[in-house]
């Protein structure tokens, strides 16, 4: 099991995992999360690899026997009056392929992202998780995250 920085050649694997992320979130709440477009794999792969040269972003992959089984996408977010918070680290995506879950990849990816953000001088790390995603919430709680905000949505 290896955790390493993503490279442009990882785009297809990143795209496949990112498309899974889109699909599961859309399943959680079809009004809140957009429907997966037909080119979700290509689009997400392009998006994540477009972030690789940003010095305030990291995309790390978990690899087992030469196969990418998960990734984490995290970055530095600037001070925000709108969100009433100081500059912080933010974990945007964390996903492990269903067949690789339960082997510690998620925790390793999360800890690697936190270490990277700590190296950037971040005083804290934040993230969002979908309300129905109880498995992710248990992982985050085990790793020391606490609830601080609740997103609420109303359709108009």
Give a verbal description of the structure.
The termini are far apart. 34% of the residues lie in helices and 22% in strands. The protein is α+β, with helices and mostly antiparallel strands. It has a single domain (2-142), classed as Aminopeptidase (3-Layer(aba) Sandwich). Strands 1-2-3-4-5 form a 5-stranded mixed β-sheet. The mean pLDDT is 97.
Shape: globular
Distance between the termini: 47 Å
| CA radius of gyration | 15 Å
For the record, what is the CATH homologous superfamily label? Gcn5-related N-acetyltransferase (GNAT)
By secondary-structure content and strand pairing, the structural class works out as: alpha+beta
Helix content: 25-40%
DSSP summary, beta strand count: 5
Could you tell me the strand content as a percent range?
Answer: 15-25%
As for the CATH topology, it is: Aminopeptidase
H-E string:
EHHEEEHEH
Note the main sheet.
5 strands, mixed
Number of discrete helical segments = 4
CATH class: Alpha Beta
- The chain-level mean pLDDT equals 97
Specify the CATH architecture. Answer: 3-Layer(aba) Sandwich
